[in-house]
Write a structure and sequence with these properties.
By secondary structure, the chain is α/β, with parallel strands linked by helices. The chain contains 9 helices and 12 strands. The protein is globular.
Length: 313
């Protein structure tokens, strides 16, 4: 039986792009195209070669190519977009809007032309504005354009909760909704340790500190390392890609286009989604406490403002 091997286009061959390629290759999720601008083509080709040689050591067998030719994106099944400049210490996500908007528009045009059926996962910051732009430029249905933020933010939240409660991260389930930035909403009413509400196991002031640390999770790493995180972001995006390619129906927090859900329209924001072979197959509307709802409203206002800034550029 002839089995079609999926094609995964990784747009941007930097830290996250390289880690994405390594993960996709190890899992043999598909053949991989590492795409970058002409000035970085040698870099993309070098990474691809290093990773193919890594396959000879580890025993995975997929084709990995580095390129700056948009035609090589032809018929990609999944496109994961990391192209853009990462944050530098002291930079807000908003400072990145102008620079990364131009890049995202160019990427969107290429995907529209060469990979019209791709499931697109955007990682480029400021996330909510970039994924909104990607949908606008490609004209793809909302089911096929999502932003990776919620899986990562939720993972950070889970880690901090687990460390505080002195339990395994494997038993913690938590969700972070809203915009990807300082206004994100770690939803406490759905945070559990193997079904037990975290509020029964962790004090209010400790939880407040964890919520604050989660919202600044990216900034904390930028400050320490001088650039954005890349191991966990890449793994989070691969999680989403795998759910799509394998029709896993995973419930994951993702930045999705809202058309009335949660009372918001024409905005991308982190909400619980179900991802399967139809892309975003469902947006799950969960009941929120008054406090969570107020936080989500504040987050939505911040996202609207950011999208507004982007629309003027």
């Amino acid at each position: 039986m002839h089995h079609h091997r999926p094609k995964i286009a990784l747009i941007g061959s930097g830290n996250i792009g390289g880690e994405l390629a390594a993960l996709c290759a190890r899992e043999e999720l598909g053949d991989i195209v590492l795409f970058d601008i002409p000035e970085k083509e040698g870099f993309a080709k070098g990474k691809a070669l290093d990773l193919e040689q890594n396959g000879a050591v580890l025993g995975y067998d997929v084709n990995i190519t580095g390129t700056s030719n948009p035609e090589d994106l032809k018929d990609a099944d999944v496109a994961i977009v990391t192209a853009g400049v990462p944050r530098k210490p002291g930079m807000s996500r908003d400072d990145l809007v102008a620079i990364n908007l131009k890049i995202t528009r160019a990427v969107g045009e290429n995907l529209k032309k060469h990979a019209p059926n791709a499931f697109v996962i955007v990682i480029t910051n400021p996330l909510d504005a970039m994924v909104y732009e990607m949908k606008k430029v490609t004209g793809f249905p909302r089911e096929r354009v999502v932003g990776m933020a919620g899986v990562l933010d939720s993972a950070r939240f889970q880690l901090f909760l687990a460390r505080e409660a002195k339990v395994s991260t494997k038993d913690v389930r938590a969700m972070v909704l809203g915009g990807h930035g300082d206004t994100m909403v770690p939803v406490l009413s759905y945070a559990t340790i193997n079904g037990v509400g975290v509020t029964q196991l962790i004090s209010k002031e400790k939880i407040d500190a964890i919520v604050a640390r989660t919202a600044n999770g990216g900034g904390e790493i930028v400050k320490l390392m001088g650039t954005s995180a890349y191991y966990a972001p890449a793994t989070a995006a691969v999680h989403m890609a795998r759910a799509y390619l394998g029709d896993e129906k995973r419930m994951l927090a993702c930045a999705a286009y809202l058309d009335g859900e949660y009372g918001y329209k024409d905005i991308y924001m982190g909400v619980p989604t179900v991802i399967g072979k139809g892309g975003v197959e469902k947006i799950v509307e969960v009941a929120l406490t008054a406090e969570e709802r107020a936080m989500l409203d504040k987050s939505a206002a911040a996202v609207k403002e950011l999208i507004g800034v982007a629309q003027k550029l």
